[in-house]
Each structure stands twice: as structure tokens, then as C-alpha cells.
Design a protein that fits this description.
The structure holds three protein chains of three kinds. By secondary structure, chain A is an all-alpha fold. Chain A is built from twelve helices and no strands. In chain B, 74% of the residues lie in helices and 0% in strands. The longest helix of chain B is centred in the middle third of the chain and has 37 residues. The chains are: A mainly alpha, B mainly alpha, C alpha+beta. Chain A: It comes from Leucobacter albus.
Chain lengths: 320, 301, 515
């Protein structure tokens, strides 16, 4: 067991390093640079000044040097400095992280709230009309890109019905009520985007479990139907669902990039988009790495939990 | 959403868990065991219809998609089924012509992902050892970066011509494809016929091309449909944040983005391209499901 | 069984399509009630851009200028009617040769941290703007300054190396900062303006609160929140629902829907001086030939550009002039470049741009939809005379690198851009000077005429001299000015006192709720 955990942690660490390298190299492929973008098109600036500003920002150092500086800084807990203002990357991320974490958490929770009951109802009578309807809806739902779901929700609930704001964000600490109201549409968008798959997966898993011998035994023992479904089948069906949850978290984290843009939420995703447009490498590389790290960490936790919950998998099986 | 199907079915498994083995059978079993070929036909039919309409756009489309007219933001009418845009261009014609470009990007990306992914996966499965480890770790690493973010950076770096978009999206879809191919091939080489053939001294390469590849064609085809859906989704999302194909050229994604900007002037502008995107992804998912069932059924035989 | 299944799926598919269409079908929406009303003392202001930093000298994006009148003061300022008046300066005097300017500061001005404003502080700020290592767009207006000195607590003296009658207008945007606090400017900016910064999330929002130490009349609003609304449709929705009180630079196409909406007022500058500038490299073929530039000027269907690209929010510029026709200094013997493809074709042919030639439009991706539409209109026009316009839109970093800074060569390429300038020609037409305009245009006659105009103290004589400058620009067509664009700002109609400068700078310092 210890070996399994150690191996998993080591793999995650190696992946993090590889990710940082990849991110760094890809970003340096971007044409243009932060200095020129920062100058906008301020008239009367000459090439000399541009060179000087570049040197000030440390952009004239060799690329490997810049990479090492970045990594070395990270070990000191210092992600670097934005090229555009006096804020450190740490500060910028700290400003944006809460919104992203909150949005992701609410969205994943909502997805579960939508998916679990739906899957349970669908699985009660496989191929029954309810199952068919729910399956059809979820298949269609999977075909909607996140931003389209967002647009539809904005049009319905913000533009037409005027029940909810189309955009904007209020920090939780400032006004919890307004904060949650602002989170509704983006969180529902992300949840609707990931729920269909969760439904499909849980449904299949439930049907499988309901057909298993131990369920029949439980029924035979006189446990009532609801007790069997919730107490026995669902619990067992949820264990493989754990892996799925990890994937959903990862998917939602990826989705926030677009959704934060659509709904004007100041999170890591919108920070990433802003930084791409401004060529603010220092910020962008750390944000991409951070989001990837969150994903890698989620996978790690899910795998470790899984290892604990399912003894069959504890042995270090060959990958395959 | 397509990306999630792929993620789930085909394993973004970072651990030693084989999501593939764990999830695929479960997902495919339970319930929908009856084969329902009509759904395949519907999917193929709708996709074919869209494809033909787009490819034949110069013949089918009622107007030249660049023909401007003073009739700006016209609503739906007999003359303009989908209405017109801010320059009075016919939206139906723009959607159909835009579909050509969309089709090119989606098919191009899928092709690239399939070719690269198959090579990558096969190399890993056959060479095993440290090469396998290295290739798969690389795939995991690429997959750990959210695709949207990665696409955003790549497109900013290289620009957004149709060819570049196809390559970038194709490359982004490669690692998952590679993972699938690798595990399918591994499953195959553990089969009796393979071990038997090897023990009789058959050449590995020959077996690979003659026996293994045809046998894993099923899952690869499913993956191709999923990749196509995913490519369309990525392209549309990139267009939506303003990084897709640039006007005056337009894909469905570009049209949705422009239409959304002008939603208050014309509703059809955003609606129709969105429906085309939705329908296409839906049908591709349906197709993937059906093909998956078929492959599964064959596998059981 | 099979039939039922078929039916079910069919119904759902239909339902999905109907739901989708009915949702989007209501996009026209009902009109908003607006927000506001008595008692409200906080407003939310939105724009498509974000504010990345707060230093007024190294201003990165135009939208940052909204903060200028709220946080800072200059020696002078532009009034709503376009006059130059004292801001921190109580009065000023000029020597007869127009080269020595003496400003006297108002008494009792303090910075938001309580420190008194001194002449030394003003000098320190100017020195910062003038320092070679400060990249500021104000620099071109300040070039004539050779020295700035504090002669006593309240007097600042400028010495110039050439007569500049328009000097007070040139320093409006030099904002006086507490230079000791410069290294904290993004976190705790210290200025003398009516507001101070309470919270700042770069690229997302700035929250301002009233500065109790402000020397002028206390502003009516307690709090101003400035937010980024990247998605214009969402921003318009927010304005209609009252989540947003002021929306700066409304997408031109959205303006019409607000007309006649009683809940929303539209604010336009009295004297628009924002002009799209399409630049070509005038040092390489074909645009090194003045005939090719004139031909391009003739091939622009300015009416279509104004109507389709700018939704009629602006004025035609048939003489290709950066100054609008209602600008007080507009004049000269100006050629009319109204749409004429025959002339265009002939002139292009003389310059060697024959049928089958290709020009490139180098635009920006994802932003400025009006540029795209303009490009498409130009493309259609050029197609008629056998010239292909290849439209390439890149993201902003790639875009800017092609032509900036001035001096780069980009043959046969048209780069759309826009200039937001004051109405004063000394600070708008100076864009044509050597080393500034990326069109790389150098013309000694223009230079001489420009210097003569700037140094002329007599207004009537100056007007004539500006006419000569405009005549040269008009004949030479160093760049294309298709129209004068109006920046339209929409506000909740309950809001009063919001105004916009000619170049599009939003002024909120006098904003208040009615009643």
C-alpha cells in the first residue's frame, strides 16, 4: 500500500515538472512580447527603449535561465511578477483563486445533485419510458458546448425573465447573498455541461449493481425497494463513480476558462485569457501550471481514495 | 462535452487503474443491450446531409456568401431563410459555406489525431518498457493541462488559419487517442491467436498490420467520431473567445460569436449556426455510441 | 415498443430545438426599468476593457483614462465645452515669445495621504513624465519643454525650446502624483483627485471611494465601481437590467436599440475627435506613391463604412481629415475623396497597382468588429476594380509587432487603428510628425507649416496656418481617415453629470443621481 502511494505521488511530481516545462516552452512560442503590448502603440517610442524595458523585465536572459528563475522562485513560494503592474503573481492569483474554487465546487456539487437522482430513477426500469427520456435528454445535453449552454441560460434567465444577473461577481466576504446569486448561472452552466455524462455513467453502474446477486439476496431478506436502491445499490455504484468525480472536477476546471469569460467572473480562467492577450508570460505560465496542478492533485486524491476503497486495486498492477 | 466522454471512456487515468477496463464495459452494458441500428442511420443520415449541403454549398446556397446588400439584419423570410447579417449577407449561405471550413478543420483535426495517436499508441504497446512509460507519461502530461487553456495558448502562438487550427486541435486530441490505441492493442496482443502466432515465429510487424490493426479498428473508429465531436467543440469555443477563424472567413463557431455580439439586432444570427454545431456534435455522439455497441458486440463474439 | 421509443426521441429532439429557438427568439427583450432612484450613492461603470494598472503616465489602454479625472489632477484641464481651464493651477502667464510659461498653484490642495501639494511635487511629476526611461504617450506633447522649475512653494515655470501657444492644452493629461509613493501606485495610489482607490483587481475591477480631503467641491457619489465586461452582449444586458449604470463605448450596433428608451440616456461628445486611422507604410511600394494612397482614399465607400461598420455613430470624413468638420480649426483647400472607383482605378494603375494585385488588411482578432466590417466593405469595393484585399486578423500582440514602433516596413499592407485625440490640432495632427505615425511619412513642408501653426498666438492667424497644414495632409494622404467616430456612452437615465470628451474619455467626476 505504501509503495502504491509513494509511486503515485512520485508520478504526480514528475508530471508536474513535465507540465511546467511544456507550458514554459509553448508560451515562449507566442509571437509578440509583453513589453510591446504594454506600450500599446504609444507614439514616439523607439527600439532602444523597447530593448531597455525588455531587459528590465528579465526577458533578455536566455530561455533556460528564465525557466530556472521561475522554478527557483516557485520553491521560495514566489511565482514572479506581472509585467503590467506592481502586483506579484502570487497576489494576482490570490485575488482570483476564490472565485474559481467556489465556482468549481458549486458546479461539481450541482452536477451531483442533478445526476445522482436522475441516474437512480432512470436505472429503476432500464429501457422504460423514463429511462428513455432521461437518456435522450442526456445524450442531447452532451452535444451542447458549455458556452452555448451559457448563452441559452443568459438569454432565458437574464435577458428575458430578468431573474438573475447576466454577469458580475461579488466576493463572498462582501455580500454572501449577492455572491451566490451571481454564481447561479455560471455554476448551473458548468453543472449542466458535466451532468449528462455523470448520469450515463451512474445509470449504467446502477443497472449493473441492481442486477448483482447480493441485491437479490437483500431483496429476498425483505429489505424494501427504496432501501435496496439507496442503501445497497447506490452505495456500490458510487465507488466506481469516484473516478468519474475526479474527471468531472478536471473537466469543470477546464470549463471555467470559457465560462468565466462568458459571465465576467474574476477567476483564474479569465486571468489566463487576459494574460494570453497581454502576453503576460509571468502570470500565464503560473496560472496554467496551477490549474494543471489542481487537476493532477485531484486525480492523485481520487486514485489514492480508490486504492483505499477497492482492495483489488491496491496491488501495483501493470499499467494497461 | 464530447471531451468528457473521451476523458471518461478512454481513460485520463493517471493511476494504474485502467479506466478503460473499468468503465467501458460498465457503460456499455446495463440496459441498452438491444442493438438499435436505426439510430446509426439517423446519425449517418443527418451528418451526411449536413456534409453534402456544405460541400455543395456553391451549388446549393441561394446566394454568394460575401454578397452584401442594403437589407441588413433582415429576419427570416422566403428570400432569406435564416435572415441576413450586419452587411446584408444571406445567413443560410454563410452557414453552408462556413460549414465547409468547419468540416475541413474538424476532419483535418480528426485525421491528424487518428494517425498520430495510432502511431503513438502502437509504438508504446509494442516497444513496451521505458519507451512505453515515457510515451504514456508524455500523454498524461499533455492531458493534465486543460484543453481549452492549451488550445488558447497554441492558437495565440501560431495563429488561426484553417490548416493551423486543424493541426493544433489534432495534436491536442492525439494523447487520448494514443492511450486508447495502446490499451486496445495491449488487449489484443494478450489474445491467444497472437501468442500462438508469435510462438510459431510470425513476424511482429506482419501481425501488427494484418491482424492487430484490423481487430482494433472498432474502438479506433469510435474514437474518431468522438474526436470529431471534440474538435468541433474546441473550434467553436476558441472562436467564441475570439481566437478562431477570423472574418470575413467564418466557421460556425465564428458565426455564433458574431451572432451573439449582435443578438439584440437579430436572433437568427446566433441561433442557426448554434443549431448546426449542436446537431453535428449530437449526431457524432450518437454515432460513437452506436459504433461502440457494435464494436462491443463483435468483441464478445 | 420500437414506435414508442422513436416517438419519445423525436419529441425530445423537437422540444430541444423549440426550446433553443424560443429562448433566442426573445433576444429582443423587453426594455429595462433601469436602476437608481433617490438615495443611491454608488454606481457601477462597465467597459469591454479592463484596467491593468493605475499609473497615469504609463497608461496602457485608453479605458484607463476614466480614472484620470477621478484620481488625479493636472495643472490644467479640459472643460465639458472644450475650453482649457485651470485645475491645480489658479492662473498662468506666458512670455511674449511663447516660450516661458509660469503657473501659480491653488492654495490648500493636499494629496489623499494628507501631504500638501507643493510646486516641488508638480516639478517631480513633470520630470518623471519627461525622463527618457518613462514610456509615456504624453511625451510627444511635452517635447518642447527644456526645463521645469519651482521658483517658490506655489509657482512652477516651464521653459520651452520653441514657441508653443497651445502649451496649456498639451499638459492636461500630465497628472500630478505623489512621487514618493510611486512604487506603491498600483496598490495605494496617492493623488489629489475627488476619489481614492479602495480595491483594485487588475483587469477586472477598481472600486473608488470619495476622497474626503479633496480640495474641490465634494462629489455626489460615495462609491464608483469600474468593472470589465468582456462580453458586450452581457454588458448590454446588464445595463438594461440595471446591474450596470454606465456602459462606456457601447458597441455601435447596439446604440439604436437604446434610442427612445426612457430608462437609458445616451451621452455623446460635443466635438468628436476619435478617428479611425488606416495606416500604410509610405516608404515602400506601392504606398510610397502618393497616387496609390489617393486611390485608396477614393476606393473607400465611406457612407457604407459609417452605416454598416459604425451603425451611423459618427460623421463622414470625405476629405480624409483627422479634424471633424465641426472642429473649430477645420479648414484649408481640401480635395474631396468621396467614393469614386473610376478615379481609384486610374490612380492605382498609375501607381502600378493593376488588376490582379493583392493588398493585405492587417487587423486585430476578436475585438473591434467595426474594423472587420470596414475591411469587408473595402474588400468588396476593391474587388470591383480587380484588386484583392486579403484580410488577416491576428491577436493584438502579433498585430502590433508588424508595424510598431514607427520605422518598420510593411509593404502593400493596410493597418486599421484609431486615434483618440483632443480636438486641439496641435495634439491630434502631431500624429503625422516624423517618428510617431507608423505610416513613416516624412514631409518637410508639413513640418514647417506645423511648427508655424503651433507657435502662432493669434487665433485667427493660427486658424489660417492650421488650414495650410490640413491642405498638405489632404493632398499627401499619409493615412486614411474614413470617418470621425463617436464614442457613445449609455447611462441609466437617473444619472446626471456624465460627459465624454471628444476623444472618448469618460468623465464621471460630476456624476450624481437626479432629484
Amino acid at each position: 500500500m505504501t509503495r502504491f502511494i509513494l509511486r503515485r505521488v512520485a508520478i504526480s511530481a514528475v508530471m508536474l515538472i513535465a507540465t511546467s516545462l511544456l507550458v514554459f516552452i509553448v508560451l515562449r512560442l507566442l509571437p509578440g512580447d509583453p513589453v510591446i503590448t504594454r506600450l500599446g502603440s504609444t507614439p514616439g517610442v523607439d527600439a532602444e527603449m523597447i530593448e531597455r524595458l525588455r531587459a528590465e523585465a528579465g526577458l533578455d536572459a536566455p530561455i533556460w535561465q528564465q525557466y530556472l528563475n521561475w522554478i527557483a522562485g516557485m520553491f521560495r513560494g514566489d511565482f514572479g511578477q506581472s509585467y503590467f503592474n506592481q502586483f506579484s503573481v502570487n497576489e494576482l492569483i490570490a485575488q482570483r483563486l476564490p472565485a474559481t474554487l467556489e465556482l468549481t465546487a458549486i458546479a461539481v456539487l450541482l452536477a451531483l445533485v442533478i445526476a445522482v437522482p436522475t441516474a437512480v430513477f432512470a436505472s429503476l426500469k432500464p429501457l422504460g419510458w423514463l429511462d428513455r427520456v432521461l437518456t435522450a435528454i442526456s445524450t442531447a445535453g452532451m452535444a451542447l458546448p458549455q458556452f452555448l449552454i451559457g448563452i441559452v441560460l443568459i438569454v432565458v434567465f437574464a435577458v428575458t425573465l430578468r431573474w438573475l444577473p447576466a454577469r458580475g461577481y461579488v466576493p463572498f466576504s462582501e455580500d454572501p447573498g449577492l455572491n451566490l446569486v451571481g454564481m447561479i448561472l455560471p455554476a448551473v452552466t458548468l453543472a449542466l455541461a458535466s451532468a449528462p455524462l455523470l448520469i450515463r455513467f451512474l445509470r449504467a453502474s446502477m443497472i449493473e449493481t441492481l442486477a448483482a446477486p447480493f441485491i437479490r439476496t437483500a431483496r429476498g431478506k425483505g429489505v424494501d425497494r427504496a432501501g435496496v436502491v439507496v442503501g445497497h445499490a447506490l452505495r456500490n455504484a458510487l465507488i466506481p463513480g469516484l473516478t468519474m468525480l475526479g474527471l468531472i472536477v478536471g473537466y469543470t476546471l477546464g470549463g471555467v476558462v470559457i465560462i468565466e469569460y462568458v459571465f465576467g467572473i474574476p477567476g483564474l480562467g479569465s486571468l489566463a485569457i487576459d494574460s494570453v492577450f497581454k502576453r503576460d508570460y509571468a502570470v500565464l505560465q503560473s496560472v496554467v501550471l496551477l490549474i494543471s496542478a489542481m487537476f493532477i492533485l485531484t486525480s492523485l486524491i481520487v486514485d489514492l481514495l480508490y486504492g483505499v476503497l477497492d482492495p483489488r486495486l491496491r496491488v501495483g498492477k501493470k499499467r494497461g | 462535452m464530447a471531451s468528457l466522454i473521451r476523458d471518461c471512456e478512454l481513460g485520463r487515468n493517471v493511476a494504474n487503474l485502467t479506466t478503460q477496463k473499468l468503465l467501458l464495459p460498465i457503460m456499455r452494458r446495463g440496459g441498452s443491450l438491444r442493438r438499435t441500428p436505426w439510430q446509426t442511420w439517423v446519425a449517418v443520415g443527418v451528418l451526411g446531409l449536413i456534409a453534402i449541403a456544405c460541400i455543395a454549398a456553391p451549388l446549393v446556397a441561394p446566394y454568394d456568401p460575401t454578397q452584401q446588400s442594403p437589407d441588413r439584419f433582415a429576419g427570416m423570410s422566403g428570400a432569406h431563410w435564416f435572415g441576413t447579417d450586419e452587411l446584408g449577407r444571406d445567413l443560410l449561405s454563410r452557414v453552408l459555406h462556413g460549414g465547409q471550413l468547419t468540416l475541413f478543420i474538424v476532419l483535418g483535426a480528426t485525421l491528424i489525431a487518428m494517425v498520430l495517436g495510432t502511431a503513438w499508441g502502437m509504438a508504446a504497446a509494442f516497444l513496451r518498457g521505458w519507451v512505453d512509460e515515457l510515451l504514456m507519461r508524455l500523454a498524461d502530461t499533455v492531458m493534465a493541462i486543460p484543453q481549452m487553456l492549451f488550445a488558447l495558448v497554441f492558437i495565440s502562438a501560431f495563429g488561426a488559419t484553417p490548416l493551423k487550427l486543424a493541426v493544433i486541435i489534432g495534436v491536442l486530441l492525439t494523447p487520448t487517442t494514443a492511450r486508447l490505441v495502446r490499451s486496445s492493442v495491449l488487449g489484443e496482443v494478450q489474445e491467444d491467436y497472437y501468442t500462438a502466432a508469435i510462438s510459431y515465429g510470425a513476424s511482429k510487424g506482419r501481425l501488427l498490420l494484418r491482424e492487430v490493426l484490423p481487430n482494433v479498428a472498432g474502438p479506433i473508429t469510435v474514437q474518431a467520431a468522438i474526436n470529431a465531436a471534440n474538435a468541433l467543440l474546441l473550434e467553436a469555443s476558441m472562436s467564441f473567445v475570439g481566437l478562431g477563424i477570423q472574418p470575413p472567413e467564418a466557421t460556425w463557431g465564428t458565426l455564433v460569436q458574431q451572432g451573439y455580439q449582435k443578438m439584440y439586432q437579430s436572433t437568427g444570427y446566433v441561433l442557426f449556426p448554434a443549431i448546426f454545431i449542436f446537431l453535428t456534435i449530437w449526431m457524432l455522439n450518437l454515432l460513437a455510441d452506436q459504433l461502440g455497441e457494435t464494436a462491443q458486440a463483435k468483441g464478445r463474439k | 415498443m420500437l414506435l414508442r421509443k422513436k416517438l419519445a426521441t423525436g419529441v425530445i429532439a423537437a422540444a430541444a430545438v423549440i426550446a433553443l429557438s424560443s429562448c433566442a427568439g426573445t433576444g429582443g427583450g423587453t426594455l429595462g426599468e433601469g436602476s437608481g432612484g433617490a438615495g443611491q450613492s454608488s454606481i457601477t461603470v462597465a467597459a469591454a476593457q479592463g484596467i491593468p494598472q493605475l499609473n497615469p503616465a504609463i497608461r496602457t489602454f485608453a479605458w484607463e483614462e476614466v480614472l484620470f479625472p477621478l484620481l488625479w489632477n493636472g495643472l490644467t484641464q479640459t472643460s465639458e465645452s472644450g475650453e482649457i481651464e485651470g485645475d491645480l493651477a489658479e492662473k498662468w502667464e506666458v512670455s511674449d515669445d511663447q516660450q516661458t510659461w509660469t503657473f501659480t498653484l491653488k492654495d490648500g490642495v493636499t494629496f489623499s495621504n494628507g501631504d500638501p501639494l507643493t510646486a516641488e511635487a508638480v516639478v517631480a511629476s513633470f520630470e518623471y513624465y519627461l525622463a527618457p526611461e518613462t514610456a509615456t504617450q504624453e511625451k510627444t506633447k511635452l517635447e518642447a519643454i527644456t526645463s521645469v522649475e519651482a521658483t517658490d512653494e506655489r509657482t512652477v515655470v516651464f521653459t520651452l525650446d520653441q514657441p508653443t501657444a497651445t502649451f496649456p492644452a498639451g499638459i492636461v493629461w500630465v497628472k500630478v502624483m505623489d512621487m514618493d509613493e510611486l512604487d506603491q501606485i498600483d496598490k495605494n495610489p496617492i493623488g489629489t483627485g475627488p476619489y481614492t482607490v479602495k480595491a483594485f483587481t487588475p483587469d477586472n475591477s477598481v472600486t473608488l471611494v470619495r476622497n474626503d480631503a479633496y480640495f474641490g467641491e465634494a462629489p455626489a457619489l460615495e462609491e464608483i465601481v469600474i468593472e470589465k465586461a468582456a462580453e458586450s452582449t452581457a454588458a448590454v444586458t446588464g445595463l438594461r437590467s440595471g446591474d450596470i449604470d454606465v456602459l462606456w463605448s457601447v458597441p455601435q450596433g447596439d446604440v439604436a436599440q437604446f434610442e427612445g428608451d426612457s430608462a437609458i440616456s445616451l451621452v455623446r461628445p460635443d466635438n468628436p475627435s476619435q478617428w479611425p486611422s488606416w495606416e500604410m507604410d509610405t516608404t515602400s511600394a506601392p504606398f510610397n506613391d502618393v497616387r496609390a494612397r489617393q486611390a485608396l482614399a477614393y476606393s473607400i465607400d465611406r457612407e457604407a463604412v459609417l452605416a454598416a461598420a459604425y451603425a451611423d455613430q459618427g460623421k463622414l470624413a470625405p476629405t480624409n481629415n483627422a479634424l471633424g468638420e465641426n472642429n473649430a480649426w477645420f479648414g484649408g483647400e481640401l480635395e474631396d475623396y468621396s467614393y469614386d472607383l473610376d478615379k481609384a482605378k486610374a490612380l492605382f494603375a498609375e501607381a502600378g497597382v493593376t488588376e490582379g494585385s493583392t493588398l493585405t488588411w492587417w487587423g486585430v482578432a476578436g475585438q473591434y468588429p467595426e474594423w472587420n466590417t470596414s475591411a469587408e466593405i473595402l474588400q468588396a469595393s476593391l474587388k470591383e476594380i480587380g484588386i484583392t484585399l486579403k484580410i488577416e486578423n491576428n491577436d493584438i500582440g502579433t498585430w502590433v509587432e508588424k508595424f510598431y514602433p514607427a520605422g518598420k516596413s510593411y509593404p502593400a499592407t493596410i493597418v486599421p487603428n484609431f486615434q483618440s485625440t483632443p480636438p486641439e490640432p496641435a495634439y491630434s495632427l502631431n500624429f503625422y510628425l516624423e517618428g510617431r505615425c507608423e505610416c513613416n511619412w516624412v514631409n518637410p513642408d508639413f513640418q514647417a507649416a506645423f511648427d508655424a501653426a503651433v507657435g502662432e498666438p493669434d487665433e485667427a492667424a493660427r486658424k489660417a496656418k492650421w488650414g495650410e497644414v490640413q491642405t498638405i495632409i489632404n493632398r499627401e494622404v499619409p493615412l486614411i481617415v474614413p470617418i470621425q467616430a463617436t464614442v457613445v456612452t449609455a447611462t441609466a437615465s437617473a444619472l446626471d453629470g456624465v460627459w465624454v470628451e471628444g476623444g472618448g474619455q469618460l468623465h464621471l467626476e460630476n456624476a450624481s443621481f437626479k432629484g
